[in-house]
Design a protein that fits this description.
The complex is a heterodimer of chains A (about 120) and B (about 120). Chain A contains no helices and 11 strands. In chain A, strand 4 and strand 5 form a beta hairpin. The mean pLDDT of chain A is about 90. Chain A has about 120 residues and is an all-beta fold. Chain B starts with a strand and ends with a strand. Classes of the chains: A mainly beta (about 120), B mainly beta (about 120). At the A-B interface, strand 4, strand 5 and strand 9 of A face strand 4, strand 5 and strand 10 of B.
Amino acid sequence: EDKVVQSPLSLVVHEGDTVTLNCSYEVTNFRSLLWYKQEKKAPTFLFMLTSSGIEKKSGRLSSILDKKELFSILNITATQTGDSAIYLCAVDSTPLKGGATNKLIFGTGTLLAVQP
Amino acid sequence: NAGVTQTPKFQVLKTGQSMTLQCAQDMNHEYMSWYRQDPGMGLRLIHYSVGAGITDQGEVPNGYNVSRSTTEDFPLRLLSAAPSQTSVYFCASSYSMIVNTGELFFGEGSRLTVL
């Protein structure tokens, strides 16, 4: 059975700390791994990773994928209270050939709380 | 652009009642989908559509029905509501299966409570 596992489930840090969120996966097909940030409402897209070892960066957030060990990490440096959210990892497991499916498998998320 | 619009935002139903969650997008996206989000379960795919007239089941389709008569709209119908369908429902869309940027655009969610 395809699955995506995120750790830790929750995390409390202080402003200025650096955090690392983990995502491991076991899937039949792999197209990409995606990170989303969910504050109070809709998840919003952060990164899409398709190749191992290539870091994606946006401001204080960065992410990298290891396709050999089947995991990804999301780093947040110099955390701010506005980083408080649930961070979702998802794997696009759509079959590469044939069919017209879009199979995204989500992890349960990591709840990050950044205290002043 | 409004993006993905869901209505209603909140709804309380009694067991056995039926209702429709509406979803509309104005980005001309081919792909639309419905997810439910439950504590400790993550987001789970209910139904999806790759274009007008084409729908298919996701991971948890039982008790739900969908149709896609236009590119813009993708309503989710609860046929006979059950307490197990208490959840937060998200509609999401993306450009196309062929040109897959990986980015899903989510609506703001509909919180449904079934008593």
